[in-house]
Amino acid sequence: MSGYLISYKDDSWRGEMGRHTFSGAAGFTAWPDSQNDRLSSFRYKLPVGWDLRIHEHRSSSSRFKAWRGANADVAVNKDDLPGYIHDQASGHSWVKLNYSSIQQAFDAVQPQGPTRLLITKPSRIVMPAGYKGDMTWHQQGIQKTSRGEFVVSGSAPGIGYLYFTDYERSIVNVLTPAHGNFNHLGGFQVAGNFLAVGYERYENKEQGDSKILFYDIANIAAPVALEHLTITRSRAGDTAGAVGLIALSDCWLALVANWNAARLDFYTSTSLDLRNNATRFSAAPIWSWSKATHGLGAGSIDNTWGAYQNINLFRQAGSTSRMDDLWFVGMHTDRFPSMEDWADLYHLNLSASSPVVTKKSKKHYYNSGGGQRFVYASSFYYDTTVKAFEVYSAEAHISDGVKSRVDRWI
Prior knowledge:
By secondary structure, this protein is mainly β.
């Protein structure tokens, strides 16, 4: 492994203060007085699978912000430096990513100092009427694909929407599925080339019904609705505010959370080939779970359960999917007056007579300023190549009709 870091005292990569090279194993370097508390910009290069960390103090255990290696020169200025690093940094470290478990990857994400990204809407892209303007109608979920594109779901008075971006985060396509009077596409998950999302009528609230829609997104500019997979949830209270999706050894598993995630329902497919018109998801849940009925599993870190707006499913790091060793992250915002964004990590065992859900960790996330909140759109993206998480949160709307702010934590 080789790479470098060049630090500057000016914001525009001028006033070079020091050059550092990376080689071999991970390490930490405390900066001399000539660099200490003076950082305004830097350049670095690291291979994919490594992180550069800029530390607040001359200690490897001090607070830091991380940047991912891309095997290319990366330039960073003060716009991406949180206050505890800009003119405050005192050292750097370099670390190889390869977390041995989902919990280790979850716990490793730094919840402060996110990087702000922008999703842009070209003038040719038309969004549904009323998609912004008040807080009833807003973005609901955000997902990154393994190719680096983004998908965002949302609600509007007349119809729900999904929009899709290219690698540069420019919107290339908008879908507005027509299913009766449904207008609320909720939290969702992308798994490989497939997407699963719940659709409901917002005005019906917790008494509503819903459908789970599936899409093939191998071509992000032309998603294909997999209508043969649609799950119809017709009972009152069978809403679908958040949906998770994961491939198991011989089928797919869809997790569906109803209003504020009071209940989780689990559906399985008849085969792994979701493009096959003969494949179906179970018409009724194979398992159901609620905290009120089942409680949290033994060894849970606390007894609290959130009103999760997005839930993402994962298998254990480096292993095949096992029914007794699945994981999910629930994201929620504690509402007024705190408006705190929290992610909770759960272990899921579906091999017992009824599901066992055990709370293993939790983390409070701090945004970069602005309206980015988990309640509007959030997700955990697991990069299988480096066994590490990226966390995303978006604001309620494409705020100025052109751009939507997104926070990213690693």
